Structures are given as structure tokens and as C-alpha cells.
Amino acid sequence: MKKSKILLSFALLCSPFWLTAAQNSGASQGQSATASSASKISSSQSSRASTAPRSSTPRASNLASNSTAPKNSAQKPGSPTAANSAPQGNAVVSPATKGVAQNSMPQSGSTANSTLQGSDGDNLGTINVTGKADLSTTEGTGSYTTGNMSTATGLNLSIRETPQSISVISNQLLKDLSLHNAEEALSKYATGISLNNDAGGNRIVSRGFYVDNIQEDGIASSVSSSVFGPLGSSKEFTDLEFYDRVEVLRGVAGLTQSNGEPGGTINLIRKRPSDQFGFNASLSGGSWDNYRGMIDVTDAVNQSGTARARLIGILSKTGSFKDYPRNGYREGVGVSTEFDVTDKTLLSAGFLWQKTVGVYDIYGVPVLDNHGNLLNLPRRSYFGSDWDKSKYEKFNVYSELSHEFSDDLKAYARLNYTDSDSMLKFGALGGANPYNGSSSHTVRYRIYDNDSKEIGFQTGLDGKFEAFGQKHDFFLNGSLSNEKLNWRETRTRDSSLASLGMNIYNWDRSRIAQPDWSSAASFKDRSSTTIKQRAISLGTRLNLTDNFHFLLGGRFSKVTYSRYYYNILRGTASHRASPSKSDFTPYAGVVWDFADNFSWYASYAEIFKPQAARDKDGKILDPVVGYNLETGVKGEFFDGALNTNVALFQIIQKNRAMSDPLNTNYSIAEGKVRSRGVDAELQGSLTENWKLFAGYTFNRSVYLKTERTSATVDYSKGANAKRYIPKHLFKLYTNYEIPLGENRKITLGAGVRYQSKTASIYRENVAYYAAPQKAYALWDANVGYHFDKHFSVNFAVKNIADKKYFQNTQNRVAGMNNYYGEPRNFMLTLNYTY
Description:
mainly beta, Maltoporin, Chain A, 22-stranded antiparallel β-barrel, five-stranded mixed β-sheet, 6% helix, signaling receptor activity, Plug_dom, signal, TonB-dependent siderophore receptor, cell outer membrane
């Protein structure tokens, strides 16, 4: 990755500030929002998942959101929208519970005094706010929930107003548990989400299906492991330090995405700059020589505050409980900027660079010896070489321009470009059947060199209109994206352990010499896939009465795949360009506010995904189609500080490729799977000092048709289609604050993660079958102390009981693909906020 890109981007991003400084050097400061010297990064931050300009003055505090959150034209006390509406005129916002401030801010043109908290919950003083409320930001609120999000429907709605199951991992929860990895955060503290370790890389699972698309600030991109598998993936998640929160949708994202599985999606919302100076730094140290440093600074760039910037940098040393040949590291820097072009027009831009170096454990450990006895190997076991290495690097640049025509109409355009590459190199134990002793253990040698480039663009309108005595909400947007993903593999012939003079009990990494990858004995493959997507989405929320709401919409999408494959050694090539697949996916939902704090909802959504399989005539099969039907009851308490949800869901996925019974070398689109279950969630604040997250999911997936005949895997009608996914998932974390006066306090937190039994996809009578992973529970805790409004310390412990378990893995067998979960570990973090 050329570092000149970073310097060039930084210069381009700074150029608006030079212009702004010149033209605003004499600008009045009377319109500025005021804050105490400690009301820094978090409390003034603008988090615009659906960004819009300030509606009052350019210098209005960045707490003033510009999203046009849909509300009823007439509200009554106790209604779900009244809970999120703001007082008019001059009002003092004194939240009854911490984290309510973002749900109690004034509407456009009003002013309020709000006492908010810093990134670790410190009281940051009083801020006079002019502008429109931001109900979404979680940084600085101390909350475990959020006010609004648009991930599910494209409309900026509260959790209660959205007729699907949605969750948020707030900034405070990330801090309490020292979570920096998105996959870890999702698997541990997002309801219904689990991970499947596939060839050493994690695949995110929701409602029995892989999550194939993720979003950043609403722009979707594919998970590259869904194209080439984890070994062919060039992408990794950005460190969570750069995000305000993680939003999770369980079920079909039919209004906001195309070309995906029906299980759900993830939306990562970036942190935004403030017009008030703020500084935050932290140092962390923990188990296995894990060390981390972070710096986060933000301020206005000119006197009037119409130009703002934020810089975040991270540097970490990443150790592991496994006996890797070396520790890894991660370094990253991100700059985000905002510029008020006019009172109604906002331009934002930013870039991010991140590099992660480590070791990739592809095959895990064997669990049985040649006679079928349990090996019970130590968790530190790693059967690789001295030269094993992994590297991921990404460069991301993004921009958004938004204009507010009125309080009821906003337009925006967003652009996102990401350049990613990865390298995996290893000589590792794998490829044996130790159960029946028919073959020897071998060492496999591989290099995977992958890269991808993707660009996404979205433009649209959000607004309101009046009809039949009520105000209603709508959105219209168009999007396009181009992705090119390249995968290159180099491999040499395997070596037997006997030839190396060792076995798993006397493993010696130094005996595994790195081969000559350029020799004639090396096999080289190369593949390139291009994915082009075009879509138009339209949705509306019809407020038939104050308490009865319909959501209707649809998305017309066109998806084109093109794949090129070339075997360098053999000199053979193939090229398949799939015809463009177009489809219209409808969306319908209803919400009935049947009580002051409760709403019933139901929804239906569709999504489709083209496939590459062909029938006997050489014709590509019709796309796989997923349908999500869901109903439930949501609750909202304490002015939105606490949200609850109970949902019943069913997903049908049809047109799955299955073996043609009359032409077994070809496929037919007649496979069908059903996923059913229950979700229950509670997240937010129970009292001023007590925060809680709890989520439970029951889920079972079955084949509705026999998809193929196999002696090793059961694909028959009625069989469990996802044996490697737990049927029961329960996650809980709670945190209690003990005030000590003068900005001093103690925070105590504890939680548990439970999952039921899982197994691999293979039948139990298969010779190389690995025993299922029994149900287990993992306990976590944290304790923190705030010395004053600036300094705090947090000590987090995970897996307190040091439970020994294997991660969920689809293809676990006796001799390989068994991956231990993390033993007990801790992290101590010292934080300074000014």
C-alpha cells in the first residue's frame, strides 16, 4: 500500500479548511455552541449515520443532529415517538438515567442545556445546544442503547418504531469490556450472532445464515470470504476504535442491500469530529503480552467552527495464547473532517489506513490419535513453522455531501472507496485421517496473496409529507458499487511428519524449511471476480393514526458476476461471465402502539443472491431467494433509555442449488431450507447507575427438501441444516456505578455467554467424526475507578472460570479443524480525557 496515498488524501482533506479559514476569519462566534473545557470528543460529536447539515447555524454544537427522524405529526405523552421527541424552546435536559441525553435533545431551532458524559462516563459539564437532535450517537452517553438507526429500513427510526429485530453494541459496552475486534464484539454481545471458524477465519452467522454484506455509514460491501472463503479474503474489519457503535439487523435487509443471505447485516457507524477541542488517550496491557496505545483528538479548524477535524491513531502489540512463532501488531490512523458549506449544506470527508500483521492458524489441532483416543492437547498447541505469517492492509477514503432543503426534505450523496490486500503464508499440520490410521500426518505449504478494490456510491432523498391529517415519512435512493476481488494461491508438495523426524508430541518448527515458491514443483492458481451492483430503493412510513403505522417499500436490484480463473502451471484458463440478474424485492411492515410503552409489529422482507451453478443445459440457475417473516412486541422505557424486544421469526431460502437426480454432474434450483426461532432482548439503563444488556435466541434450521445423497453429510428432508450453529444462545452483561463524589466513582460489571451443544456437519458414523462440543458458559467481568473527570482505569477479565472449549466449526474432524477458544485473560486500561 503506497503511503503516498495517505499523504495525498490528507492534503486533499485539509484543502477545504484553508479556504474556510480565509473566508471565515472574521466570522461571528456568537452562534457557537458553548461547552466546558471537558465537554470534548464525545459530547460534542456529530454522528451522522444519515448525515445532514445543521438546521440552524453552522456553529451549532455537533450534538445537533441533522437527520430527519420520522415522527408523528401529533404526539401524545407515552407514545413511542413522544419518548424520543424533544422539548421546544429553552429547556433543561436532566436525564433520569444516564444515556438518556441523546433521546432528550431539542428539535430544530430550540435550545437546551445538557449535562453529558465523557468517553468513560465522566460528567463533562453543560452544553448549550442549538439545532436538531441527534438520537443515534452513543459515544459519551454512557448508554448501552441508542435512540435511532436506519440500518433495517432506510428510514431513521427508533428501535421501537422499526418492525424488525435490531440491536446496537454501544461505545460504552465496547469500553467496559475492552473490545476492539468487531467479530469478537458481535459474537459475545450481539443477540443471536455467532461465529463459525472456517479454515482459521471467522464467518459471522445470524439466524442460521452467513452475513455476506456489511455496511459502513450505510454503504454496503461484500464480505470477501463469501466469494473465495477466508483463505481468499483480502479484507479484515477496521479496529473498533474508529467507530461510535455497531448496529445489527437480524433478518433480511431487503430495503438496504442486494446480493445477500437472509440472516442479517452489520452497520458500522464512524465517529465524527467536534467543533470543541477534545483529547482522549489510553494505554492498555494484558495477557500474552498484549499492549495497546490510542490517541483521539478533535477540534474546530477555524474560528467560526464551520470546519472541524478529528484524528484517531492506534498502535498495538498482539500476543496470543497459542505458541505462535512471533507476536503480531496492528497500526492504524484515521482522519475525519466536516465543513459547513452553508447553513444548510454539509460536506464531510475522511480516510483510514490500517495494517495488521500476525500468524494465521489454518488447521487448528487434531483431537483424536490413530486409535481414536482423545489427545487432550494443551491450548497453546500450534502446529506450524517458524516462517508462518499473515498480513492485512487497507486504505479507505470516504465523503458525503448533504443539503437540507427544509425540515421536511434532505438530499445526500455518499462515496466510499476501499483498497485492501492480504498475504497468508504457512507450513502447517493438516490433511490426515488419524482415526483409522490409513494415512500419515502431513505438513502443507501454502501462500495466499489476495487483494480487492471496491467503490460504492449512494444518493437519495429523505423527507416527510402530509396527507389525511398526518405527517408521513419517505426515502428514495439509488446506489451502485463495483468490486474486484483477486485471489492467488501458490502451493508445493506436502511433507510427511516421518520425513521431518517429528510428531505432534515433539513438534519442532525449525525443521519445517520454507520451500522455493518459484520452483517448477510449485502449483499456482489465480482467480479474479468482479461484482457490479445497481439498485433503486423506495420506502415510506404511513402514520395512519398516532398509534398505527405502515411501512411499505421495495428495492429493484441488478447484480452482475464475472469470474476469471487461470492455472499458471498447466497454462489453462477459464472465464465465466454470469448474465445480469435483476429482481424486485418488496418490504412491508406494520407497527401498532397498543400501550404507552409497548408496540406490536410484523414485517415481511425479501432478498436475493445470484449463484454460479449450472443445469444440464449449461444455463445458470435462478438466484437464491430469501424470505423473512417476523412478528413481535417491543417496549420502550425511561424516555428511550431502555429497550426490550421479543420476536418470532421464520426465514425460507429457496432455489438453492442441489444435485440433479437425473444428471448428477449438474444442478437444479430446487433446494429449500427453513430457519425458525425466537429472539428476546433487553438493553439500556434500568436506573441512573445501572446498565444492562441481555439477549436470548432459539434457532433451528432444517432442510425442507433432500438436497443430495451423501454417506458423510445428512442433506435429507427434515435434517438439521446447521449443526455447527448453537440452538440456544444467551448473552448478558450488566454494569453498576457507585458514585463517590467529586467526579469519583467505581464501576462494577459482570456477564455471561452461554451456548448449547454444536457439532460439525459430518454424520456420527463417519470414521473421522469429531465429538460434538458440549454446551458451555463463559463468565466475564470488569471493574473501573474514576479518579476525577480526567483519569480513569478499567480492569476487564474474560472467561473467568478458564473454561476449555472448541470454537464452532462447520468441518471439524478428528485430525484437523479444531480451534480452542481463548483461556482466561485480562486487560488493564488507563484512560485520560480532556
